[in-house]
Design goal:
Blueprint lengths: L8 E2 L1 H18 L5 E5 L5 E5 L1 E5 L3 E7 L13 E9 L3 E5 L5 E2 L15 H18 L4 E7 L3 H5 L4 H4 L1 E2 L10 E2 L4 H17 L4 E5 L2 H11 L7 E2 L4 H8 L6 E7 H7 L14 H11 L4 H8 L4 H10 L3 H20 L4 E8 L3 E5 L3 H10 L1
Parallel strand pairs: 7-9, 12-13, 12-14, 14-15
Antiparallel strand pairs: 1-11, 2-3, 4-5, 5-6, 6-9, 8-10, 15-16
Helix pairs in contact: 1-2, 5-7, 8-12, 9-10, 9-11, 9-12, 10-11
């Protein structure tokens, strides 16, 4: 199925705002709605079903069932509720049952606050103002967002790693969930990057994925929970690093990913570029490989196979040193001069292939923190 035929969904932020609109409408206008409309920040109007709405004479409550469309999302199908009541003045937005609390610095909300992000808070506030104007009400409103399933669902999310405890987050910058959204993945990586940077002592470990983390744990005894898995998004992460309070980073990755950076490729997914053999072949040639060896490298399917050829010719280390130098050059160009970068390149079969001079000092410092 192509992406253009996939069904879009809506965020927990849109669910919360829709539930608030229903609850405040019941509270201030006495109207118990079955549906409500919500204009998302993306400019798309949602028509949301309201469920389990009620009024006990003091508080109102309404729920909206989360629909993630065709995006794989563990929050799909849960019900986000909003409870509304009048207060003397102002707008108070709190999290109740199943909504996480922020326990670490570096997230959008301060430590101790409900994990309800800025855009959903703005959407909620806009809904309250809209209904209050219709009701000619100038008092205050207190809102509590909650979901009975939140605490259990949160165990399947990144929240525990991000420093959000005991529940889910109310998220979304556009109000809309795009199916299989690459942007959503980048956003989640950048949130983790920011949180870990703020809570670090100025240094951070980056790995493309599980291979890098496992290698660091196995070979150096590193606490891999400290590392940020950046997937294929090298460029986006380096751009973000420039804006963070970091003096030094270590990038540790398998040759199959990092070799692409030696060619200036900053999005390492194979659908964007696969220049692995070309890069290894060129650097092998510069290391002294003859044309037949280069041709054999170009016919290899895996980087491990290409490295074995170079090892048999006695040219592996010289080739890897050349590749490492080029990786470093491209990363420094993208990163700028204000952040030090150390690099580890390894293979599953051959282990450590190359590393920059400051790696050992970096790892020693990390272990002492």
């Amino acid at each position: 199925m192509s992406k253009k035929n996939l069904k879009w969904g809506y965020t927990t932020g849109s669910c919360a705002a829709g539930a608030v609109k229903g609850a405040v409408t019941l509270l201030l206008l006495g109207q118990k709605l079955e549906k409500t409309t919500l204009l998302t920040p993306k400019g798309i109007t949602l028509h949301l079903d309201l469920i389990n709405c009620g009024y006990d004479g003091e508080k109102t409550v309404c729920g909206v069932k989360k629909d993630s469309g065709d995006d794989p999302d563990v929050t799909n199908g849960i019900v986000i509720y909003a409870t509304a009541q009048k207060v003397e003045k102002g707008i108070v937005i709190e999290g109740g049952e199943g909504i996480g609390r922020v326990s670490k610095k570096g997230l959008q909300q301060p430590v101790g606050s409900a994990a309800i992000n800025n855009v959903p808070r703005q959407m909620i506030t806009k809904c309250i103002h809209e209904i209050a104007a219709l009701a000619e009400y100038d008092g205050g409103i207190a809102i509590t967002i909650w979901t009975p399933q939140g605490k259990e669902i949160a165990k399947k999310t990144y929240n525990p790693r991000l420093g959000i405890v005991d529940g889910i987050s109310i998220l979304g910058t556009s109000g809309i969930v795009e199916p299989m959204s690459e942007k959503a993945l980048i956003d989640s990586i950048l949130v983790e990057l920011n949180m870990k940077a703020v809570n670090s002592n100025g240094s951070l470990i980056l790995t493309p994925g599980n291979y890098g983390s496992a290698f660091l744990k196995r070979e150096y005894g590193m606490d891999v929970d400290k590392a940020v898995k950046i997937s294929n998004f090298v460029g986006e992460v380096l751009d973000a690093v420039k804006e963070l309070p970091l003096q030094s980073i270590l990038l540790a990755g398998h040759i199959g990913k990092l070799v692409k950076i030696a060619g200036g490729v900053m999005q390492t997914h194979s659908k964007y570029a696969d220049c692995r053999m070309e890069i290894i072949g060129v650097h092998g040639a510069m290391a002294g490989a003859d044309s037949k060896t280069v041709k054999n490298i170009m016919e290899c399917i895996t980087t491990e196979e290409a490295l074995l050829l170079l090892q048999q010719k006695g040219m592996l280390q010289k080739t890897m040193d050349s590749i490492l130098k080029k990786i470093l050059e491209h990363i420094k160009y993208r990163l700028g001069e204000n952040t030090n970068i150390e690099i580890i390149v390894f293979s599953e079969k051959m282990g450590l292939l190359a590393q920059t001079k400051g790696v050992q000092a970096f790892l020693k410092n990390e272990k002492q923190q």
